Amino acid sequence: MADDRTYDASLLTALNVESREFALTWTRTLLRDLPEVETGGVPLGPGQPARPRAATWPEFSLTDQQIGAALALDAVLDERPAPPRLYYRPHVTAARLYLGNPNLWRSRAVDGSSESRRDSSEIVGAWLSQGAGLDRMIPADLPLPPFVLPGTDTDAATRDPERPVSVVVRALPGW
């Protein structure tokens, strides 16, 4: 069976909001849902070459299909050109997946030791601010659906205030 998780860092060298593969890779980058590869190799026996170690994905790693479905939900479809063009917003997808993760914890204590993480709204806010550059790659007259951080009543971090906002729900081709 083919691996249902992919990560190709070379896709990040050219920003392309129309590329599903770029969007998938950028989403995994933000979520830190990356394969961990141990250095060295597994010895096959005396005098035999070492076999490279396989990549190990994190415990709650998402499949390409799961991220792809989330990317489709946040994508913006421009039906004006022929053929229509689909624009991905991987920063918004990563934010939704991160905030909706039931395994996310703010602080925990185990055997007298405690650990805390940064506030999730702070992390997501940084992703959305950074993603504004990707949003600027989408035609300016195309309305972008808003993203509102929990506990706030504004989506100013995700879009230009001069840009119109509307939500259009359609079946996306290829999903």
| Low-confidence runs | 153-159, 164-175
Instruction: Give Rg in angstroms.
Output: 19 Å
- Backbone shape: flat
Order of helices and strands: HEEHEEHEEH
Derived structural class: alpha+beta
Strand order of the largest sheet: 1-2
Q: Distance between termini?
A: 20 Å
Strand content: 5-15%
Number of helical segments with 4 or more residues: 4
Note the main sheet: 2 strands, antiparallel
How many structurally independent domains?
1
- Mean pLDDT across residues: 79
Total DSSP E strands = 6
Residue share in helices?
25-40%
Regarding quaternary structure, how should these chains be classified? single chain
Topology at a glance:
Elements: H1 20-31, E1 41-43, E2 50-52, H2 64-74, E3 76-78, E4 85-87, H3 90-99, E5 107-110, E6 113-116, H4 120-135
Antiparallel strand pairs: 1-2, 3-4, 5-6
Structure, explained:
The protein has 175 residues and is of the alpha+beta class. The chain has one domain (16-37, 54-158). The chain is 28% helix and 11% strand. It contains 4 helices and 6 strands, in the order αββαββαββα. The protein has helices spanning 20-31, 64-74, 90-99, 120-135, and strands spanning 41-43, 50-52, 76-78, 85-87, 107-110, 113-116. A two-stranded antiparallel sheet has the order 1-2. α2 crosses α3. The longest helix has 16 residues, at 120-135. The radius of gyration is 19 Å and the shape is flat. The two termini are 20 Å apart.
